[in-house]
Structures are given as C-alpha cells and as structure tokens.
Amino acid sequence: MVKRKGSNTEVDQPSTSKRARAQSGHHEEDPDVEEEEEEGDGAGEEDVMNLTQGDPNLNHPNEKEADTGIIEAISLKNFMCHSRLEFKFGPNVNFVVGKNGSGKSAVLTGLVVGLGGKATITDRGKSIKSFIKHGQNAAEVAIRIRNRGLEAYKPDEYGEAVIVERRLAQDGATSYRLKSIKGKTISTKREELSHVLDHFNIQVDNPVSILNQDTSRNFLHSRNASDKYKFFLKATQLEQMSSDYSTIQEQREEIQATLRTKEETVPQLEKIVSEKEQRFKDLATLQELEKKVEGLKNMYAWAQVHELEKQLEPIAKAIKQEEARTPKYDQKVQESMKKVEAAEAKHQDIQQKLQELADKVQALNPKHEEAKANLKLKKDACKKTQAEHRKVLNQLKTTKRDREQVMERIDEMKDSVQQDYEAERRAREEQIRLLQEQLQKLQAQQTTTDHQIDQFAQAVTLYKEQLYNLKRDEQDIQNTTRQLQRRLQDLQSSRNNSLKRFGNFMPDLVRQINQAYQQGRFHQKPRGPLGSCISLRDPELALAVESCLKNLMFAFCANDHHDERVLEGIMKQVCPQGRRPSIIISRFHERPYDVSTNRVQHPDYPAVLDVLDIEDPVVSNFLIDQRKIECVLMIKDNKEARQVMQLQRPPRNCNEAFTAMGDQVYTNRYYSSNTDKSSYLRVSIEEEVQETQERLQRLQQDGSATRQQLAELEQDIRKNQQEQRRHQTQKMKTQESINKIQYEIRDLQSVEEPTPVDVSTLEEEVMMYDEQIKSLEEKMETIETDFNAQKEDLEEAESAYQQIDQQIRELADSADPLKDDLGRADIEISQAKQHRKHYEQKHKEHLKKIADMQKEHDKHAKKVEEETGKAFQICPERLKVRRTAKNIENEIVQIQKRIAQEEVKRGNREEVTKDYYESREQFGTIKDQIRELKRFIKSLDEIMFQRQQLYKDFRRMLALRSNHFFINMLHQRGFSGKMKFDHRVCTLSLEVQSSESNKQVTKDMRSLSGGERSFSTVCFILALWDSMESPFRCLDEFDVFMDMVNRRISMEMMMKVAQDHRHKQFIFLTPQDMSSHSYLRDQSIMRMWRMPDPDRGTGVLPFERRVEEEDDDRRN
Length: 1116
Description:
By secondary structure, the protein is of the alpha/beta class. It has 4 domains: 20-223 and 1004-1115, Rossmann fold (3-Layer(aba) Sandwich); 287-324 and 876-906, no CATH class; 339-462 and 737-835; 497-692, no CATH class. The protein is built from 24 helices and 22 strands. The strands form 6 sheets. A 6-stranded mixed β-sheet has the order 1-22-4-21-20-9. It has a 6-stranded antiparallel β-sheet with strand order 3-2-5-6-7-8. Strand 11 (556-558), helix 14 (561-574) and strand 12 (583-585) form a beta-alpha-beta unit. Helix 10 runs antiparallel to helix 19 (760-874). It is flat, with a radius of gyration of 61 Å. The two termini are 41 Å apart. Residues 1-63 are annotated as: Disordered.
C-alpha cells in the first residue's frame, strides 16, 4: 500500500481529498463552547475491568513494537450504555471479552466517533447525538495515540502521545480538542485531527481497519461480487487513488475548456487590433487652436516671472529685520564668554593659592626636619644626663656604705688589744698592692664595658629606625602588589573583553545600562566608561592622554539628573565598594562641536583632540566641555615641552601641554607624572600583561629582599639587645668586684698597731668619705640642675617641632576648603561653558535662520532666474503682460477643452496611441498563455498515462498478494480456494472448498456453514490486513458463528499474524471466554480485558438489546 504520510514540516499543506469522506456531514462546534462536567451514575465501572493476561512492556524478540499510530488508551464518558469506561491497550494483541449486551462494541464505536468518524459508519446510530447516554446532556470520548520515534507528529508540541478528545452535545454540535501528553490543548480544529490521521495513516472509514458486527454479518451474507471488489479497493486505498486521479482529470478538462475559450477569442482580438491600428494612423492634428495655445503659453510664462519677482520683496525685508537683531546675540555671546573667562580666572587663582600653600609646605619641610633632628639631640642629651645621674647616685650609695663600714672598724679597733702587727703590716701592704693592681684592671674593664654598652644601645636605636623604614617599604610593596595583581587580572580578562581593563564588573555594568536603555528607563543612553569610547592614533601618547584625562577615563556621562539617578542605582547594584565610577552630567548633543576658531593650532605638535579617534560625537563634545581637549598640546619630548610652553610664547588658545612621559607643563609650572605606564589606552594587551607580570615579579623579589632585611634587622636588634644586657650584667658583676676589692683595700689600710690604738687614720678616712659624699651630693645637684635645663631645652625643641608640624597641618587643612572651592569653580566653569554654549547655539541658530532666509531668497531669486530663462526659451522676447497668470491659464484651459471636444470626435492622439499599444500587448499575452496551456496539458497527459499504468500494476500486485495470503490462510484449516479478481468489470468472488466437500469447488459462500463462512471471512480479512498500512486493526465478534475447531484455527492464524506483525496493533472483541485457550500462551504480546456482565434491567440502550436478540435468534 502507498502510505500518504507527510513529514512534520509539510503537515500544514496536506491533501484534503483523503479526508473528504470523513469530514462530510459533520457539524464542527465553536472551540470556545464550554464543556459541562457531569457525574454519571456508572462512575467507577473501570474498577471491575480485569487485565487477565499479558505484560505490554515485554517486546517480541523478532520485531519491535510500533512507535506511532497505535491506540494506547480510550476513555468513554456518558457514551452509549457507559457512564465511564476506560481502556489501556497493549501495543500488539488486545482482547475485549464480554457477554452480549455488556457494551464491548461501544469501544469500537467510540474509537470511530472519537477519531472524527460519522455516525453512519458505525452502523449503531443515525446521528452523533444518538450515542449520548440516555438522560445525559453530553458525551465525551478521549483517545490517546502513541507518538514516539523518528516519525512522530510534531513531537515538540505533543510529546510522546497525541490525545484526541471529542465532545458530543444533545443539539448535535460537536467539538474537538487535541492535547499533548501533558494535557495542554494544542488545537481545537477538525483540520488538525485530519492532519494527525493522515500522518499516522489511520483510516477511520476503512471497514477492514475497524470491522464491526454489522459489516461482518453483511459481508457473510453478501452475494454481490461487486461489493467485495469495492470492499477490497477501499481497504487497500486503491479507491482513494482512483478518486484522486479522477479529480486530476476533471481539473484537466477545466483547463482544456479555458484553452478553448482563449482560442475562440483570438480572431476577434486580432480584428480589434487591426481597427485600432488604422485609427492610430488616420489621426490628424488640430493646428490653429494649438497655435493659439502656444501664444497664450508665452504670455503665461512671462506673467509667472512678473509675479515671482513681486514675491522677493517681503523676503528681503524679513532678512534685514533679522540681521538687525544680530548685535544682541553677539552681546550675549560676549557676556557668556566673559563669565567663562572669569570662572576660569577664579579657578586659576584657586589653583595658584593651592600651589602657594604647597610651596609653603615645601619651604617648611627643611625647618621641620631640622627641628626633628634637634629634638632627637635634646632627647639623647637628656637620656645621657639621666644615665650620669644614676651613676653618681650609685656612687653616693656606695660611699655612704663604705663610711659606715669604716665607722664599724673604728669601734672594733678601740675594743681589741693591740698586738705586734709588723709582719702582718708588710703582708697587708703587699696584699694592698696586689688588690690595687686588680682594681686598676677591673676599672679599665669597666670603662670598656660602658663604651660597649653605649655602642650596643646606639646600634639598637639605629636598627629600630631602619626596621621602621623597612616595614613601611614592605607595606608600600604589598599595596602596590595588590594593585598590580588586580590590574593583571583585569588585563587578562580584557583579552576577550576590552571593558574588563576598567574592572571585572564593567561588562556587567555596561550590559545592565543597555538593558535599562532598551526598557526606556533613560532619556538618553549614558556613555562610559569614557576610556572605552576613544582610541589613539599614536600609541606612544597613551600615557600623555591618560594623564590629561585622569579620572575621566573611568567616568560616565549622563544627559540629565534623571539619567544620573537611574545610572547611580545600577552602579550601586553592580560596582564593588570603593570602585564606583563617577557620573558627570552634561547635556548631550548629537552633532560634533565646531572648534575650529577656538582651538590651538601648532605646526609641529597636535592637540589631544587630534590624536584621538572618537566615533561618538556625544563623547567628543563632553571631553571638549570638561577638559578642553582642543586646547591641550601633545609634545613628546620634555625639553621641547618646556621650550614651547615656558621659554617661548605659548601658542594661542593653549594653557597647558603633556609629554609622552605623562608630565604636565604649564607656562610657569611643571608637574611630573606619578606613573610611567598607561592603564587603559595601550594597544598591545600582551605587552602590558608581560610588563605587569615583570613588575609583579620585581616587586615580589623586592618584597622577599625586604622581608629578608627585616628578619636580619630583627635578628641584629635581638643580638645587640642580648649583648647590651650581657654587658650590663657583666658591668654589674665587675662593679661588685671593684667594690669588694676597694673594701678589702680600705679594710687592709685601716689596720694599725693596737698600741696605742690609733684610729686617726680611719677617722681621716671617715672625713674623706664625708668629703666624697658632699662632693657627690653637690655633683648630684649639678646634674639635676643640668637635667632640668636640658629638659627645658627638650620642651622648647619639642614645642618648636610641634609648632612647625602644626603649621604644616594647618596649611594642609587650609587647602581643603580651597579644594572644595576648586570643585565649585569647576562646576561654575562647566555651567558658564554651558551658558556660553547655549548663547553660541542661539547665535548660531540666529545666523542659520538668516542663512536659511537668505537661501530661501536666493532660491526664490534663482527660481525667478530659472523661470525667466524658461520664459526666454518659450518666448525669446520679454513680454509686458498686464493679465494675471491665472487669467491666462483659464483661457488656455478653455481652448484645450475645445481641442478635447474635437478629439472626442476624432479621438485623442495619446489615448488612441495608448489603446493601440495596450491591445497589441494583450493580444500577444493571450497567445503566450495558449501556448503555455497546451504545453501543460501535454505534460499532464503524459504523467497521467504513466500513473494509470502504475496504478494497474499496483492493483494487480496487491490482488496477487492478497490472493496468496488468502490461500495460505485457508490451508491452515485444510480448505482450498482463491480470490478471483476481474478488474475489467470490477468484481471479486471468493471460491472456497472445505475439507469435507472435496469433489467440487464451492463458489457461493452462503452454501457453507456459519462457522466455515466466518472462518473464510477471517481469512479474507487477514489477507486484506496484509495489504493495508493502518497501524491498528479492530475486529468485533469475529468468531460468533464458528464452531470450536474453526475458532481455534482462526485464533491461531490471527495470533500468528500478530506475532509476525509486532509493529501492528490488534483489537479483538468476542463474547467467548478466551482465558483457557492454549493458543493464547504467548502472554508477552497480549492484553485481555473482561467486561462486566450486563444488567438486563438497566444501563443498555434499546438498539443494543435488539442486536443481542438478533444474534440469539440466528444461533437458534
């Protein structure tokens, strides 16, 4: 069979002829009709249905189940005898078992009706509304069709299943809803259902695809071979193909009729063309009237010139009036320029004051350093005096202790008995000499130790100062390293996005600004960062331009305060804390400023404006307003910059210049750049990345070296402090040894002869100690007096240092209001420039108005000149015309009317000419159309002849295939026979011979028994199924007239066919109990549903009972 499936892309233009039969006789309800939700008294009938056998998920090993077109489920609501009934079919074999009257045939009827079939197809009712359950207002049928795999229908919209819902109403109206597997309504049109059925090749009106009881019964009792032949054609869709060919032939006849009509008009058209050609040749001119018109046209031309000359006078008068207002505009422009100059002078004055403060601070720095050094000296002197005071105090304490010891000795000597101490005296003197030698050595050692202690203390102080400086250097290195690391990260990110040079957050900020502008939140789209809106013509001037523009490189500009607030809100969300760009308000102008008169001109050096490429005029105008880039020179060499700006007279309109190193040069000042590399305008990102990495590496090396020095310094400080403490300990020990020796010496020296006891020496020693104590006390007073004087000097030095430091702080504090004044002066300059720009714009508009009026005057004068020239061309001699152009024109019109009246009689020359050429062209077009139609009909005849031959061959092959399959099926029962086709007279007869009547062929199936006829019918249906492409086959009570043997063989044949055709779905309805049959053992391909027994009292429609009684009568 030929499958008429369209791809998903072609479904919008399917063939409508295939569905013509299914669409006729249906009333399609408005898709907006509201559906009623009804609760039937038979709700829950599905609970008594039993899935008795089979697992639908098990695949047959020989063939895959179908992906598309099979019926997965059907749901009936208030349909025929069912309040609610639901089935979920398996992909291959499905049995619906139920006694007569149980409503199983309603499943097939619901399937036909739900898929758009007419009531007459079902043989169960005359109209759609007859299927609504008695006592209900509406019925619903829902069918779920599988939609998987490569041949799925619109899988993006429907998913893996197409759900078709049809609602039937009592008034005969019907509506459709096609839903996706998720329940979303995709369409409510009948045409979409037709497209779905065409795509899956589902033939609702094919009696073999869905074979009900009545069709089967009529076929068993039918003798008409012509009906069987029609049955065969309809089942194999050959009837549809034949109908399509007939439609094409009818259209061909219509084209042939059109061709004949056009050929009949050719002689008449040819005659008309000849007549019009004759009129075209015979047309004469109207000479005299036309000559008069020519004369009047001469007068009309000079009359127009005269009137145009009069119109020039008011224009010239208006120009003079407007020119009289020019001085007023000039005055306003001059006043605004003076305000700008005053604001700039104020700005320069504030800058001068700031510079003076800076100079004062610079002048105080040497004094500040001198006072700081003097303060340090005074502190050192105080410390030294304090150390000496402690030393004298220790000596005083020692002397007093020694005096007390001598006094104790005197007391002891007075009490002891004097003995012979001569030998003892000599020994004592020797011992005293030895002790004095030890004392001298210890005192020398003590002096050395004091010197070393002072050296260690000075070394610790020096090292601590160096340590402080190194820690500050290390902090600077860490800060610079973090800045460079952030800069390196921005540069590496900017390889793919140049905006990341300004920070990783900048692309997101620009994106949100664009989104806000698209949403209409800005009056004008803000520009920025401004550094991304410019590019350099000379890469060597990158640092110079960045030094000139400074923070403007990172800034944004907004058109007004509204846009500023919106932009500020976006920045708060996107920008990190402390890195938010500044926003400057400046009215946007889409046309670039004309700065040709106010800009700097130099033969050798360009202005900043000259070295920049700026595509956006708003950005260039903004930089002109805010930074005067047209008045700033770019001079690469520092010496040349000083030569041009300071040693020579600066160029006109130029107050400052920048060098390639970023230095700023004024006429009387020079400021060096704080950096030696550009950040934003460098052309080579890789070069800047490499340089930044090298700087980081150098900084890391410097940091390592600094940390190493710090560690060494800290180690040196610890060592010196340890040595200082060790020497102080040694000093204390040495002092103790000295004191001990001195005591021993004094003790030895104080020994005298006991007789008489003479203590005068000791008393003299006491007196000596008293003198020493007095001397030390006087020395203490002197030291304290000196210390107090030094302390006063220290306080004076500290006061002097604080005074100078306070002066520097005061100067710095006094600079803050000047900086604020400088900011306000910047705003005043900006406002003054805007006012100047406003009046300059007004002045320019005024001049433009005068120029426009002058242009209009010149245009009018030129028109007068052109009209005069035209008039000279029309009439070389100037005519003095007193009549108006309108009067002359009216006379021309009257004469032309007379000419037209004459042309009506004789024919207008232009119309006759036009008519002639149009008729000739029309005649040629018709001849071309006739030629094309003949060629088309010839091609169509050739194609249709081929199609007819292919149709006959295809029909013959289908007949042979069906006959072969029919014979094989009969052999299963031991029958013989054949399907006899006569395509000339369109008949099909079945010849069957049972195994018992082997003497002659049974030509009439009515002579067979009921079971044999049913078996033969099954064989015939299976043969047609083999030639049919529908994805499912439905058969109702196929075995009702069979005996057990025929039923078993028929079932075995059908199950064998089902096993061999796993990609097809089979639905069998039978009143027989199929659960115990041995030929249904393959449960992997089968599902069985058992209908509940019917309630003979209620729930069955009258025609159901009638069909049941007729079936019972036949069995009897």
